[in-house]
Amino acid sequence: MGVIDDKQQIELSQSWEFLCRRHAGVHNAQLLIHSESRQLHLKTAFGPLDQPPTYPDQPFHTASVGKMFTGILIAQLVEQGKLRYEDEIARYLEPDLIEGLHVFKGHDYSGTLCIEHLLTHTSGLADYYEDKPRKAPSFVDQLLQHPEASMSPEETVRWTKAHLPPVRRPGRRGHYSNTGYNLLGLIIERVTDKPYHVCLHEQIFEPLGMKHTYLLHFSEPAAESEYPVATVSLGKQVIDVQVYKSFSSNYASGQTVSTTEDLLIFMKALQQNRLVSEATYARMQTWNRLWVGVDSGLGLMRLRLLPFAKDLRTYGHLGSTGSFALYHPSCDVYMIGSLNCRGLMGPAARFVLSVIKKIR
Fold first, then answer.
1. Would the CATH topology of 6-60+211-359 be identical to that of 68-196?
2. pLDDT for 323-354, tens place per residue?
3. Is 321 left (phi over 0), alpha (psi -120 to 50) or beta?
4. What is the Cα–Cα distance from 144 to 139, expressed in whole angstroms?
């Protein structure tokens, strides 16, 4: 593999701009493509001329990319012997939260759910954020209608129990569940006797020097950015996530704000086994099929962008706002960014594939 020349970098920038212009909901977007071995550090941003300026180093809401942080905190606790992936979650959560959590076709599986089920999205639990109830407004609709109303992780679990039945038995095919990750955040708090956001800062952000990364509505960054947090497009609305306290409901399922450079620090640390051991990181890569071309691990995603092309497999995580933090081993390239627009996970994944095809 050779050095990425100026022409290739221009083509990559143009591809990103083309993607952004194709989707009317994209009002600001950040991108970083990095490879030390290929002498590449391409950092750019996109924003329409009639909108407020957009900056490459602008902080943005990472959405489900933040699930990797939750996965790492759980993995560290496993390494410390404070819990096991096989542990039933009822061991760590209040009985009233567990009661009736997973009743499927007349059978109560609530007491059999384990930590690994939640991490790999194989719990069978519904997803409060994306799944739509039959007889009530969707959670996202409520979030937008009541921006001032914060919701605790316990409340998101109770909302799920009240409005969304489980979709299948535990241990079967994956069903993406933000509810499961909020439960993991509560388990982390119970085991450590510390708030989830404190664990994030003490175990990940501070040791790695991720100065612009924090849990929105729960903590503050170590260093304030000179740029505003990027807005997010949800449907026809463009919202300031700092104002919408209702976003606090995302908690351990994806509530962090970060920058492309901070996420690069994290992704490098993950690959270099600076957060967990090599054996633990390998254990996190126990894959279950989630969607076509996407597998879920224990806090990670694997993109099989073409089913039979092993050299195109990419590791990290995607988010519903078109956010991504991914590493492609064969090309030794990190791809990090966000379109900051709900519903663009698929286009973001296809952009990643196009990058790999251009540089491999």
1. yes
2. 999 999 999 999 999 999 999 999 999 999 99
3. alpha
4. 9
Q: Does the domain at residues 6-60+211-359 carry the CATH identifier 3.40.1160.10?
A: no
CB atoms within 10 A of CB 309: 12
pTM of the model: 0.96
CATH topology of domain 68-196: Beta-lactamase (3.40.710)
Q: Which of 135, 137, 118, 132 is nearest to 175 (CA)?
A: 118
What pLDDT, in 10s, does the model give residues 10-60?
999 999 999 999 999 999 999 999 999 999 999 999 998 778 899 999 999
Query: 188-210: buried (b, 16+ CB within 10 Å) or exposed (e) per residue?
Result: bbebbeeebbebbbebbbeebeb
Domain ranges of the chain: 6-60+211-359, 68-196
